[in-house]
């Protein structure tokens, strides 16, 4: 399966916009792409993350495991809504079904890597392990990102989940000296992430990219992120 899990060092780091950019980059080369969100918690404006991805990237197939109204951890949001979260096996089956019909499936997590997705303590890391697929880690540009990124990468590698690379979720138009230094460190953090000569960093999405007109977003996204290692083009 050509499936990629998109996780982050925390909530609000830009996973959704990175997922949209990855989808747009893959679609631009002629591949078919589906997006799967196991748990959507928080729909204050009536839209979920897959709606944002669909609008920006033009993805035709975007599926949620469950949609919960409150912007809380999935277990807490489900308890408040008095509903039962889908089991890990249901998520696995949904991804496998999408993978059978598309060149690529992007699985966007909720919050950070170890946020629980079901009522049995299983996380996005458990989903990636069950599917035997790699993960991309979305990180911040500012102070603290090196530690948070290293912790997430370590959690993945301890579970033997391949790390396809890192993406900075929001790169400022005028980066500070700290941000420039962090980017250089992330670019060369390949020891735990990849043995590729090109380094660990797959790219950086410009800050505010989610507010771009969709046509412009799709045109520019392939220049922000290179396709992750292991995501070969679909059949001609």
From TrEMBL:
<keyword id="KW-0436">Ligase</keyword>
<feature type="active site">
    <location>
        <position position="37"/>
    </location>
</feature>
<keyword id="KW-0547">Nucleotide-binding</keyword>
<comment type="similarity">
    <text>Belongs to the dethiobiotin synthetase family.</text>
</comment>
<feature type="binding site">
    <location>
        <position position="16"/>
    </location>
    <ligand>
        <name>Mg(2+)</name>
    </ligand>
</feature>
<feature type="binding site">
    <location>
        <begin position="108"/>
        <end position="111"/>
    </location>
    <ligand>
        <name>ATP</name>
    </ligand>
</feature>
<keyword id="KW-0460">Magnesium</keyword>
<feature type="binding site">
    <location>
        <position position="207"/>
    </location>
    <ligand>
        <name>ATP</name>
    </ligand>
</feature>
<feature type="binding site">
    <location>
        <position position="49"/>
    </location>
    <ligand>
        <name>ATP</name>
    </ligand>
</feature>
<comment type="pathway">
    <text>Cofactor biosynthesis; biotin biosynthesis; biotin from 7,8-diaminononanoate: step 1/2.</text>
</comment>
<keyword id="KW-0963">Cytoplasm</keyword>
<feature type="binding site">
    <location>
        <position position="49"/>
    </location>
    <ligand>
        <name>Mg(2+)</name>
    </ligand>
</feature>
<comment type="function">
    <text>Catalyzes a mechanistically unusual reaction, the ATP-dependent insertion of CO2 between the N7 and N8 nitrogen atoms of 7,8-diaminopelargonic acid (DAPA, also called 7,8-diammoniononanoate) to form a ureido ring.</text>
</comment>
<dbReference type="InterPro" id="IPR004472">
    <property type="entry name" value="DTB_synth_BioD"/>
</dbReference>
<keyword id="KW-0067">ATP-binding</keyword>
<comment type="subunit">
    <text>Homodimer.</text>
</comment>
<protein>
    <recommendedName>
        <fullName>ATP-dependent dethiobiotin synthetase BioD</fullName>
        <ecNumber>6.3.3.3</ecNumber>
    </recommendedName>
</protein>
<dbReference type="InterPro" id="IPR027417">
    <property type="entry name" value="P-loop_NTPase"/>
</dbReference>
<feature type="binding site">
    <location>
        <position position="108"/>
    </location>
    <ligand>
        <name>Mg(2+)</name>
    </ligand>
</feature>
<keyword id="KW-0479">Metal-binding</keyword>
<feature type="binding site">
    <location>
        <begin position="12"/>
        <end position="17"/>
    </location>
    <ligand>
        <name>ATP</name>
    </ligand>
</feature>
<dbReference type="Pfam" id="PF13500">
    <property type="entry name" value="AAA_26"/>
</dbReference>
<keyword id="KW-0093">Biotin biosynthesis</keyword>
